[in-house]
Amino acid sequence: MLSVGYALDLVGARFLHPIHAVADTDPAALTASLDALPWRKEAWGSGAWVDAWGTAAYWNLARAHPNSPGSLDALFGWLLTHVNPAAGIWGKPTDDNRLKMVNGYYRLTRGTFAQFGLPVPYVERLVDTVLEHSADPRYFAPYRQNACNVLDVVHPLWLASKQTKHRRCK
Predict the structure, then answer these.
(1) Residues 77-88: pLDDT tens digits?
(2) Dihedral angle at the C-alpha atoms of 28, 105, 121, 135, nearest 10 degrees?
C-alpha cells in the first residue's frame, strides 16, 4: 500500500479505483478489527496494520474516492481513546523493552496523525518514552544501531517537535 501509493504519487499518478478493502469498511468493522489486533504482544505489527489502513484511506481521499461514512472518525476516535496516557503511545512495554511499542508508534502515526496533519496525544509523555527507549544499549550502543530503529525514534521526536519544546536542548 505504502510503496505503490507513494511511487504513483512521485510520478504524478494516483490509484484509478478505490481501495475497496478500506473504502468498504464500516466504522463497526473497523473498530472490531482494531480491538482484535495484538497490541500488548505485537505493537509493531498492530501499528503496521493501522499504517496500511490509514494510508489506503488517505489514497482514497486523494483520488476523491469516498471511504465508508464515519470510518475515519472511528479510526481516530479509537486511537485517541486507546493510547496509553502514561507512555503517549499504543501498547505497553514488555520486560522493560519499548522497541516494539516505539516502532509501532512510528508506523501507526506515520499513516494516520502525521499523514493527515493531526496533533498526536500525550506528546510530552511520548517524548519521554522515546528518549528512554533511545537510551537502551541493546539498540543504540555503538555498532548496535540500525536505520529502522533510528527512524523509529527520529520520526516521533520530529512529530512531537511540532507540538512541544519538552526536553528540547537550548
Answers:
(1) 999 999 999 999
(2) 160
